[in-house]
Design brief:
single chain, alpha+beta, OB fold (Dihydrolipoamide Acetyltransferase, E2P), five-stranded mixed β-barrel, 2 helices, about 20% helix, globular, signal, Lipoprotein
């Protein structure tokens, strides 16, 4: 009788244990939670950026993965390079996603989904091709003032 109980119990244990063991590798990887610098001051954003440009953006044309999140990629038509080096007149720019917000990538809207001339604070591309905003904050994409004056100091 004891042998039969062990025989019945073993398949039950395997039935419970095997799915639990298999779920580990199939479970989605956790997303990264990033703490961003406060670059709401344009002077801070200018200092932190690898490049600062004036230009216009169009609608998102695709996406790339950033921090395990699909980030929208826009073409940025560059009219002036204020800081850094960009050889192209049109560059792909990823709109850095907000992390740890559940299923919403841009809770306040995509910062690059704007019209008109803008000042954009950029991080150099890790993949050799796609630039990105230095943080997901909307202060990384500023409307160009009507008088064309930049809202930050370019020296130093």
């Amino acid at each position: 009788m004891k042998a039969r109980r062990g025989t019945v119990l073993l398949p039950f244990v395997l039935l419970v244990a095997v799915p639990a063991g298999c779920a580990g590798p199939l479970a989605p990887e956790p997303k990264s939670c990033v703490s961003w610098i406060d670059d709401s001051d344009p002077d801070v954003a200018y200092q932190e950026a690898d490049a600062v440009v004036v230009g216009t953006t169009g609608p998102a044309t695709g996406s790339i993965e950033m921090f395990r999140i699909d980030a929208a990629v826009h073409q940025l038509a560059v009219t002036e390079v204020v800081k850094g080096y960009l050889d192209e007149v049109s560059v792909p720019v990823a709109s850095t996603p907000v992390t740890c917000t559940g299923s919403t990538t841009y809770p306040e809207g995509d910062p690059l989904d704007v019209e008109g001339a803008v000042i954009v604070f950029l991080s150099a591309p890790d993949d050799g091709a796609t630039w990105s905003l230095i943080t997901p904050q909307h202060t990384n994409v500023l409307p160009l003032p009507a008088d064309g004056r930049l809202p930050f100091e370019t020296g130093g």
